[in-house]
Design goal:
The protein is of the alpha+beta class. The protein has a single domain, classed as 2-Layer Sandwich (Ribosomal Protein S5, domain 2), CATH 3.30.230.10. The chain is built from 8 helices and 12 strands. The radius of gyration is 17 Å and the shape is globular.
Amino acid sequence: MKAFAPGSVTAVFAPAESGDESMGASFAIEDGVVADVRPADEPAVAVDGEPTDFEPVELALDALDVAAAVDLASSVPIGCGFGASGAATLATALAANEAFDLGRTREELVAVAHRAEVAAGTGLGDVFVQEMGGLVVGDGRDRWRVGTDAPIEYDSFGGIATEEMLGDDELMARIERAGTRTLDALPADPSFSELTRAAWSFAEATGLPTPAVREAVASVENAGGLASMAMVGETVFAVGVEGTLPDRTRICPDGASLR
């Protein structure tokens, strides 16, 4: 049984009071992860056919109490700010539910994937965006979707370890201040251009942009577009340009689904 979950990019975020979610603004993209789940004697995970350890996926299988072989095919870079771990975990949960006839609701499966991501230290809410699709804004309690399928360009230079970042108290304090300030000033239903402009101010306030990220953002701005940094990854996304960055996709208006 196969399921697909879109990748997602967090543009702005701040820790929520619950500690296991975040408030922010993110968007799903058409590129993502397909999980092929089959019953097996022992749980096993592979990425593009290569066996690997993938903690959130393994935790989700354990929570669902199934032994499965999971083959993940990703069309987004892993560990670079595209929510690949969340997409893989959500797609696995959806596919496992069908493969093993578990009868879980979609809400229950999203919760399983989210808890697995939190326990693994790989995300604080990507799966909610990937379940909904579109541009998603949340205040830590509620989330609402802004419908758009805007084209975007992106370039990725590498990853930033999410688990290490979430454990850096000084950095997280900066992110909380800058993220809260940015989200308070953002319209409830921002356009993608409004979000991107606000996101770059937020990124600069965190101190996270690397020289490669700054150079890519400057090239987009010189071409008349807007750009910012994916949270968290050494990745730049842009709107309002064509052919400035090497990769192109669209915001995915639909959420995760069976294949």
